[in-house]
C-alpha cells in the first residue's frame, strides 16, 4: 500500500543501498506551467490563476513564465513528466494539497497512474522530520553534487559537496544552459555513483530528467527548499510551513500534514 512516509522510506533505502534513481517534483509552479498559465513571483507580488496577488519573494525565489514567450520550457517540463525509465520517479500534487482536479490533470498528462508516480511533497510536511533525521545522514555518506542559488552559503551543509553549480533568479528560463554544462561535466569526468541534489525551481525537473536519461549510474534528487536553512537562505523563515514547523518549532498549516494519495 502506498503511504506518504512509506515512499520516503523507500527513497532512503535506495540511497543507503547504493541503488541509483531519480526524483523530479511537480508542485504548484510546475502545475501552472504545464497548464500554460502565466506565472510570476516578483519582489512584492505574484501572478497566477489569472490574478495578481500580494506577496514578497526574495531574489532567489523570483521567477516568470510567460506562455507566449516560453513554450520551449513548458515542452521540456512536459517531457520530464512523461519520460519513463526504471527508477525514475515523479512527484505530483496530492488531493489534500492541490485538489482532486489538479491530481487527475497531472495523472492524465503523465499518461495514467503507475508506480513511477509519488508525492511532490514527499520531503515536506510531516515527512520533513524524517528527511532531516534519516535522509540527510544517508546523504552524508555520499559524494554530493549540488545545484543551488548563487547566494547560498554551503559551508554549513553537513554533506561532502565535491562540486557545486550555481543559478540565479528565474533559473528555469535564464539558466537552462546548465543542463548541458552539467551533462558535459559528468561525461568529461566519468562521474558515477554520485548524488546530485537540485534546489533550482523548475530547472531541477529538466536536470533530473535529462541527466538520468544520459547517465543512470548516478542519483538525481529534486529537493526543493529542504536544505535552505543549512544554506543560510533567509527566505525559508517566511515562505515554507514545513521548515518553520521543524526549525522554529512553531505550529503551521502544513507542517504536520500527512498527505494522502
Task: Please describe the topology of this protein.
Blueprint: H1 4-16, E1 22-25, H2 28-34, E2 39-41, E3 45-48, E4 51-54, E5 63-65, H3 71-82, E6 88-92, H4 95-98, H5 100-110, E7 117-119, H6 128-139, E8 143-149, E9 160-167, H7 171-174, H8 178-189, E10 195-198, H9 203-214, E11 219-222, H10 236-239, H11 241-247
Parallel strand pairs: 1-6, 1-11, 6-7, 8-9, 8-10, 10-11
Antiparallel strand pairs: 2-3, 2-5, 3-4
Helix pairs in contact: 1-6, 3-9, 8-9
Task: Fill in the keyword field for this structure.
261 residues; seven-stranded parallel β-sheet; four-stranded antiparallel β-sheet
Tell me about this structure.
The protein has 261 residues and is an alpha/beta fold. It has one domain (4-35, 71-247). Helix content is 38%, strand content 19%. The chain has eleven helices and eleven strands. The chain has helices at 4-16, 28-34, 71-82, 95-98, 100-110, 128-139, 171-174, 178-189, 203-214, 236-239, 241-247; strands at 22-25, 39-41, 45-48, 51-54, 63-65, 88-92, 117-119, 143-149, 160-167, 195-198, 219-222. The strands form two sheets. The protein has a seven-stranded parallel β-sheet with strand order 7-6-1-11-10-8-9, sandwiched between helices. Helix 9 links the parallel strand 10 (195-198) and strand 11 (219-222). The longest helix is centred in the N-terminal third of the chain and has 13 residues, at 4-16. The protein is globular and about 45 Å long. The model has no long low-confidence stretch (mean pLDDT 95).
Amino acid at each position: 500500500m502506498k503511504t506518504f512516509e512509506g515512499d520516503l522510506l523507500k527513497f532512503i533505502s535506495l540511497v543507503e543501498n547504493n541503488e541509483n534513481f531519480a526524483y523530479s517534483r511537480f508542485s504548484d509552479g510546475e502545475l501552472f506551467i504545464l497548464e500554460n498559465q502565466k506565472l510570476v513571483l516578483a519582489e512584492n507580488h505574484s501572478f497566477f490563476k489569472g490574478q495578481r496577488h500580494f506577496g514578497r519573494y526574495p531574489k532567489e525565489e523570483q521567477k516568470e513564465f510567460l506562455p507566449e514567450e516560453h513554450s520551449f520550457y513548458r515542452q521540456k517540463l512536459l517531457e520530464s513528466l512523461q519520460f519513463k525509465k526504471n527508477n525514475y520517479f515523479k512527484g505530483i500534487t496530492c488531493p489534500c494539497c492541490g485538489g482532486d482536479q489538479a491530481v487527475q490533470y497531472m495523472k492524465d498528462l503523465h499518461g495514467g497512474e503507475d508506480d513511477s508516480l509519488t508525492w511532490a511533497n514527499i520531503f515536506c510536511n510531516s515527512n520533513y522530520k524524517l528527511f532531516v533525521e534519516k535522509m540527510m545522514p544517508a546523504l552524508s555518506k555520499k559524494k554530493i553534487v549540488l545545484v543551488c542559488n548563487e547566494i547560498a552559503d554551503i559551508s554549513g551543509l553537513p554533506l561532502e559537496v565535491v562540486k557545486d553549480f550555481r543559478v540565479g533568479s528565474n533559473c528555469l528560463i535564464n539558466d537552462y544552459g546548465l543542463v548541458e554544462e552539467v551533462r558535459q561535466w559528468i561525461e568529461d569526468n566519468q562521474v558515477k555513483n554520485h548524488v546530485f541534489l537540485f534546489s533550482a525551481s523548475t530547472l531541477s525537473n529538466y536536470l533530473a530528467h535529462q541527466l538520468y536519461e544520459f547517465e543512470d549510474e548516478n542519483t538525481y534528487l529534486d529537493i526543493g527548499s529542504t536544505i535552505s536553512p543549512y544554506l543560510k537562505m533567509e527566505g525559508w523563515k517566511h515562505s515554507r510551513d514545513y521548515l518553520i514547523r521543524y526549525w522554529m518549532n512553531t505550529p503551521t498549516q502544513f507542517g504536520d500534514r500527512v498527505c494522502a494519495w
